[in-house]
Every structure is written in structure tokens, then in C-alpha cells.
TrEMBL record, chain A:
It is a multi-pass membrane protein. It comes from Absicoccus porci. Pfam families: EII-Sor. GO terms for biological process: phosphoenolpyruvate-dependent sugar phosphotransferase system. It is found in: Cell membrane. PANTHER family: N-ACETYLGALACTOSAMINE PERMEASE II COMPONENT-RELATED (PTHR32502), N-ACETYLGALACTOSAMINE PERMEASE IIC COMPONENT 1 (PTHR32502:SF8). One of its GO terms (cellular component) is plasma membrane. Keywords: Cell membrane, Membrane, Phosphotransferase system, Sugar transport, Transmembrane, Transmembrane helix, Transport. This is PTS sugar transporter subunit IIC.
Automatic annotation (TrEMBL), chain B:
Pfam families: EIID-AGA. The keyword Electron transport does not apply. This is PTS system mannose/fructose/sorbose family transporter subunit IID. GO terms for biological process: phosphoenolpyruvate-dependent sugar phosphotransferase system. It comes from Absicoccus porci. Keywords: Membrane, Transmembrane, Transmembrane helix.
């Protein structure tokens, strides 16, 4: 139990303290981070399913320029951990993850704000010619900060949270559970909306409807859509080159 | 003065260190400290005296932010090649390096975020979630392996391309519009797949039924005859509209919560 909690806490720490993206890049995403939570807590399959439901809510979320519309890392890691300790239905966990991710915005903002202090210290060290100090400022204080902001809360939640979270889940009436299920089913629309906003230029938006109705009428799965879309994209790309050469 | 040249090993080391650019991520200067940390490995190789090293490093403490792991590495490649030429006496000013980095960080973030966050991530995660929900452990494993393999392939090659071809190649690529066309091709794939997900993932139906005399009318059946998928489509388009109106995502999430709970209690909508 304690060991699981420690491992999850370290994972949560690294999910914001990106010490090297060769490792931490995918800790951002619930499908992988939540699966790791499941493995650390000895429930890989349950963790994986909860992680997948949470992940589906966040398809298409774009974090650019340091802004984060909701805390993906908290949703994936805290959400999966909460599902496991509360013995909840993984589908239902999605709504808790979404709620947690809103609280997580505070963690992210605090992290990004406080870290500016270390940059100023690094300025000073660089002025003094202390290169080791600069390097230290890049890694150490931000790591400790993330441990406090991300690691400690999830550690406490896993060690002390089982009883209250199970009571909370048990106290939810069937009608509210149904309602939360509906909320979870609508939630993917947000990520999709964000993505459409990012890549959905007017001249390309027809392709969104193409994918939608290929699925409605021909029951294509995601992989099939990907394969056909790649063919279309390749044709479009080379045709464009041709018309330019002709001009 | 002896010539200072970077070996392949130095370059690989700098590439690996570039992945720490967001370790001390902060609102004030974003990736600046991380970049200084990366350049430290290069600068200590190129300059002998501490004064020169400090002077060279100072310019990297300036505000910097780009897409860090897929495409943005090309900027680091170019920067390192410029720093190397400068150390060996080429007429390159600090301002040249700073303005190049500031000029490229926006466009590279645009392309990098499209490829990594708008195309690869949703498609890969969407497919892998299907496996995971079937209880297949290949889901998360495939996600981790394929994502990292693609990231390393793109990140490494862009870094090395930047170093070898320098700024001219990138600037001409930007000007010829080739990058826009590639971005567009990726966008097409992303849009089709997202269209698929709007139907398969926004799984909402209408449970209402009416009784007029002997005839029982199931509302969902009417939708299925007229325009199947109308409900998920309308919901998705409404949410997109909210995003497009620059509404705060937190607010949108709250609206979805309230809308979902109200519709569920009124019996208008339910999870499919």
C-alpha cells in the first residue's frame, strides 16, 4: 500500500516536472499515466480501463504556450487512483477525473508561477559564472515543488482516502449515477471541439463531416478512418503540387 | 586560437538535453532556463574561458517557447551550428542568434503542435483506447511505444537537419509553403478521425417515447430514420461553437455537467 502510494506519487511528480521528455512526454496522457497507476497499485486491467475512459474525455486537448485548459495529468493519475481505491465503475470515474482536473488548474498555475523564482536565481548564478548552480536551478527546486504540489496529495489520497471515497461512491443514488454517465458521454465533445477549433479551417471542415458520416453509415472504426484519410491526404498533397507545377 | 568542433556525440547529448527544456517550466520565460541548461553542454565545448561561456549562455536566458519534442528541435540544431561557427570566428552576432530563435519559435510551434497534439495524439490515443476498453493490455503499451518512436524519429531528425542544413534550408522551406501543405495533409487525417470519434465517442441517445392512441413513438427511431447521429453531431457542433467563441474551457466543462445532469433527470438524453 505504502509502496504503491510512493510509486504513484513519484509518477505524479514527474507528470508535471518534465525532467526529460524522452521519458515524461507521455506521462501527460491519461492512457499511459493511468495505466502505470494501475500497475503500481496492482490493478493493471481496472486501471487501464479507467485510464482509457478518462483519456477519451481528453482527446484533442491541446496545451500550447504553457496554457492548460484543465489538468490532464491530475485527471489521468488522480482519476485512476481514485477509481481504484473507491472501487468505482471506471466509467463513472471519468466525471471525478474531470472535476479533479479543474482543481488541478490551481496546481498547474502554482507550479508555473513559483518556478519563475528559480529562473531569477539562475540569472544570478550565471552572472557569477556558477554554471553548476544554473543547472541545479533547472532541475532541483522545480522537482521538489512538483513533489509537494502533485506527489504529496496523491500519496495522502491513496493512503487515507479509501474509506471516504468508498462511502462517497456508495452514497451516490442510481439516478445521479446515470446523470454522471451522461455527462461522461458528452465530455469527449469538448476535446473534439478544441481540435476542430485548432485544425478545422473552412476549406477542410468537410473532412470532419466525411469522417462522421462514414462512421454513421458504414460503421467504420477509428483505424479504418485513419487508413482512408491517409490515402485522401496523400492524394490531396500530390495534386496540390501538380497544379502548382502546371501554373 | 584552436578550432572547436562538435562531435556527433556532443550533438546527441545536446539533443537529449533539449528534452529537459520544460523541466522548470514557468510563466515568465517558459523554456528559457531549460534551453540554457541544454546549451551549457555545447558552450563549454566551444569556449575555453568562463567569461566567454557566461557571455554565450546569457542569450539563452531570454524568453523562449516552442513545441519541444517533435519539430521544435530543429531550432536547437540551427542554434548550435550558429554557435559553433561563431566560436570559430564567423561574423555572427548574439542578436542574429536571438532573432532567429524568436522568429522560428512561433512557426515551429504551429507545425509541431499540429503534428503531435492535433494529429498523432488523438488518432493514436483513440485507437489504443479501443484496445484498452476491450481489456487488451496492448492499448497503453502500443500508445507508449508508437508515440515515443515517432517522437524520437521526428525530434532527432529535425535536430540533425537543423544542424546540418542551417537556417537557410528552414527559411526556404517556410517560404515555399511546403510546411503548410504538410500541415494541411496532417489536418485532413486528423479531421476525418475526429469525425469518427464524434460519432463513436459522444455516445448519447434520446430515451423519450410518446404514446398517441395505440401508436408508440420512439423519438430515437425518428432520429435514426431522418439523420442518424444527429444528437452527437449537434452536441459536438454546439461545444465547438462555445470553444470558437473563446469561452473558458472550465466554464464549458461546468456547462456540460449542468446540461448533462438536467437532461438526464428530465429524461431527454441518456448515455448510449
Amino acid at each position: 500500500m505504502i509502496l504503491s502510494a510512493i510509486l504513484v506519487a513519484l509518477l505524479a511528480t514527474g507528470s508535471q516536472w518534465w525532467f526529460n521528455h524522452l521519458i515524461t512526454r507521455t506521462w501527460l496522457y491519461p492512457l499511459w499515466s493511468g495505466f502505470l497507476v494501475g500497475v503500481f497499485m496492482g490493478q493493471p486491467i481496472l486501471g487501464m480501463k479507467a485510464a482509457a475512459y478518462i483519456q477519451l474525455t481528453y482527446l484533442g486537448w491541446i496545451t500550447a504556450g504553457g496554457s492548460m485548459p484543465g489538468n490532464l495529468m491530475v485527471a489521468g493519475i488522480y482519476g485512476t487512483a481514485l477509481t481504484i481505491i473507491s472501487k468505482a465503475d471506471p466509467r463513472m470515474a471519468v466525471t471525478f477525473a474531470a472535476a479533479l482536473s479543474l482543481i488541478g488548474i490551481v496546481q498547474n498555475t502554482a507550479y508555473m508561477t513559483i518556478n519563475a523564482f528559480w529562473v531569477h536565481r539562475a540569472d544570478k548564478y550565471l552572472e557569477e559564472g556558477n554554471l553548476k548552480g544554473v543547472r541545479l536551478m533547472n532541475y532541483l527546486p522545480s522537482g521538489i515543488l512538483s513533489l509537494l504540489l502533485y506527489g504529496l496529495p496523491v500519496f495522502l489520497m491513496i493512503v487515507y482516502g479509501a474509506t471516504w471515497s468508498q462511502n462517497m461512491i456508495a452514497s451516490i443514488p442510481k439516478s445521479l449515477a446515470n446523470a454522471l454517465n451522461l455527462v461522461a458521454s458528452i465530455m469527449p465533445a469538448l476535446g473534439i471541439g478544441m481540435l476542430l477549433n485548432y485544425i478545422g479551417k473552412k476549406k477542410l471542415i468537410g473532412f470532419f463531416f466525411l469522417g462522421f458520416f462514414l462512421t454513421v453509415y458504414f460503421k467504420l472504426d477509428t483505424m479504418a478512418c485513419f487508413v482512408f484519410a491517409s490515402c485522401v491526404a496523400a492524394v490531396m498533397y500530390y495534386f496540390q503540387n501538380d497544379t502548382e507545377e502546371a501554373e | 586560437m584552436a578550432e572547436h568542433h562538435l562531435t556527433h556525440k556532443d550533438l546527441v547529448k545536446a539533443w537529449v538535453l533539449s528534452y529537459s527544456s520544460e523541466t522548470c517550466y514557468n510563466y515568465e520565460r517558459l523554456q528559457a532556463l531549460g534551453q540554457t541548461n541544454q546549451m551549457m553542454s555545447v558552450v563549454t565545448k566551444l569556449y575555453d574561458t568562463k567569461e566567454e561561456q557566461v557571455a554565450a549562455l546569457k542569450k539563452y536566458m531570454e524568453f523562449f517557447n516552442t513545441e519541444p519534442s517533435w519539430i521544435g528541435t530543429v531550432i536547437h540544431g540551427i542554434t548550435i551550428s550558429m554557435e559553433e561557427q561563431k566560436a570559430n570566428g564567423a561574423a555572427i552576432e548574439d542578436e542574429d542568434i536571438i532573432s532567429l530563435r524568436t522568429g522560428l519559435m512561433g512557426p515551429m510551434a504551429g507545425i509541431g503542435d499540429t503534428v503531435s497534439q492535433a494529429v498523432v495524439y488523438p488518432i493514436l490515443a483513440g485507437i489504443c483506447c479501443q484496445f484498452a476498453l476491450q481489456g487488451n493490455i496492448a492499448g497503453p503499451l502500443l500508445f507508449e511505444i508508437v508515440y515515443k518512436a515517432l517522437m524520437i524519429f521526428f525530434g532527432y531528425n529535425c535536430f540533425m537537419m537543423g544542424y546540418k542544413q542551417g537556417k537557410q534550408a528552414i527559411v526556404s522551406l517556410l517560404q515555399s509553403g511546403t510546411l503548410d501543405k504538410i500541415t494541411e495533409a496532417f489536418s485532413i487525417i486528423g479531421l476525418v478521425v475526429v469525425g469518427n470519434m464524434a460519432y463513436s465517442r459522444v455516445a448519447v441517445k434520446c430515451p423519450l417515447t410518446f404514446r398517441s392512441g395505440e401508436v408508440k413513438v420512439v423519438v430515437q427511431d425518428m432520429f435514426d430514420t431522418l439523420l442518424p447521429g444527429a444528437i452527437p453531431l449537434i452536441i459536438t457542433l454546439l461545444v465547438w461553437r462555445m470553444v470558437n467563441k473563446k469561452m473558458n474551457p472550465t466554464l464549458i466543462i461546468l456547462i456540460i455537467f449542468i446540461f448533462g445532469i438536467v437532461c438526464s433527470y428530465l429524461g431527454i438524453l441518456s448515455a448510449a
